[in-house]
Amino acid sequence: MKPRLPWSGRATRLAFPAAAALAVLALVLIPLACKRKAPVPRLLSVVEMSNSQAETQLLDGFYGLEAGAWRWTRRQFRVLLAAPPGAAQNGAWLRVRVTAPDALIAKLGDVTLSASLDGHPLPPETYSAAGSYTYARAVPAAFLQGQSATVDFSLDKVMPPSGRDIRELGIVVLSAGLQPE
């Protein structure tokens, strides 16, 4: 007669595959549970074009970073901005630092920049001389009831693609932001 080992019974033979499956599952799931999740980037209320962490807020119409500080735009461009603290009660200022390049003004004359914040139009601004400008508009509190706002910009004229540059070129943007009232 064969000696009977304590772990050799029918119940043990059935339980062993289940225990092995649980052990394998634990080995797979434990490292996943221990991994640190990447921090979600905080939405900024002021986006400097040079800030690579804010690139996800440049929704459309911006070309790549140039000279480590600025970006050309297309005719239409869009940016997502966090509402600054207190904006839902006090409003804010939309400030966009731009440059109207010599080539743009020489070729097209006056260029008008229009903006709307979440569909609410803001007064346009016309640039008739080359140079640096700040497009600044008061934004009423009623427009800033959410945690963020999308600002759509539009130019009435842009330089068409020419030569080796196949981009349509609008204005140069250095920063865009919503700042407390």
Give an account of the 3D structure.
The chain is α+β, with helices and mostly antiparallel strands. It has a single domain (46-180), classed as Jelly Rolls, CATH 2.60.120.260. 20% of the residues lie in helices and 39% in strands. It has three helices and nine strands. It has helices at 10-34, 87-90, 102-108; strands spanning 46-48, 58-62, 71-82, 92-100, 111-117, 120-127, 131-139, 148-155, 172-180. Strands 1, 2, 3, 4, 5, 6, 7, 8 and 9 form a nine-stranded antiparallel β-sheet that branches. The mean pLDDT is 87.
Shape: globular
Q: In CATH's first tier, which class applies? A: Mainly Beta
Total beta strands: 9
Helix content: 10-25%
- In the residues, how many domains can be counted? 1
User: For the terminal residues, how far apart are their CA atoms?
Assistant: 93 Å
| Structural class by helix and strand composition | alpha+beta
Strand content: 35-45%
- How many helices? The count is 3
CATH superfamily (homologous) name: Galactose-binding domain-like
**Roughly what is the average pLDDT, rounded to an integer?**
87
pLDDT under 50 segments (min length 5)? none
